[in-house]
Design a protein that fits this description.
Rossmann fold, alpha/beta, about 170 residues
Length: about 170
């Protein structure tokens, strides 16, 4: 059996089941595993319980909108590339999503090939970020850095800053 940490995972947050299925089929080439959530809280639980590399999130879903999900990820310091998609685009929404850390914003109906290309990049970026974070954790363990010091390292945002620098270099 393959090492699960080497598999890529895409999470689709879409409350319309038919559209979720279309997106899942269209995006199968970009990830080894595709998870589907139909409401925001369900998506958050999947983020917490799986190694998610990228997220395609509808803006208007029940129990936690796509934008609220981006905000929550920002507060939790989760570095997962997220693309917001919606039929209700507005300059204000696009600005907020970008300021909160969304990688991109796509209006519905999206061209599936373009969406596939964008999500492929997002999954690859997220996979690299996840492995960088894993390497940082491994370095801490190998050097017997106590948990309290690791917590301080994370609290000081040093780990996040390292990941941001590397992420920025991957985006260029």
């Amino acid at each position: 059996m393959a090492d699960l940490s080497q598999k890529t995972t895409l999470l689709i947050l879409e409350d319309e089941p038919e559209l979720a299925e279309i997106l899942k089929e269209a995006l199968e080439p970009v990830a080894d595993q595709i998870l589907v959530a139909h409401e925001g809280e369900q998506a958050w639980k999947m983020i917490e319980s799986h190694s998610v590399d990228a997220i395609l999130a509808d803006y208007q879903v029940p129990k936690l909108t796509g934008l609220q999900l981006v905000e929550r990820m920002l507060r939790a310091k989760r570095k997962i590339p997220i693309v917001i998609h919606t039929a209700h685009a507005s300059p204000e929404l696009i600005t907020k999503a970008t300021l909160y850390g969304a990688l991109s914003f796509v209006t519905k109906p999206a061209k599936l090939k373009e969406l596939e290309h964008l999500m492929d990049k997002a999954v690859k970026m997220g996979f690299r970020i996840r492995h960088i974070e894993d390497e940082l954790e491994k370095i801490c363990e190998e050097n017997s850095i106590p948990l309290a010091d690791r917590a301080q390292f994370k609290k000081d945002n040093k780990e996040q800053r390292i990941v941001e620098i590397i992420t920025d270099s991957l985006c260029k």
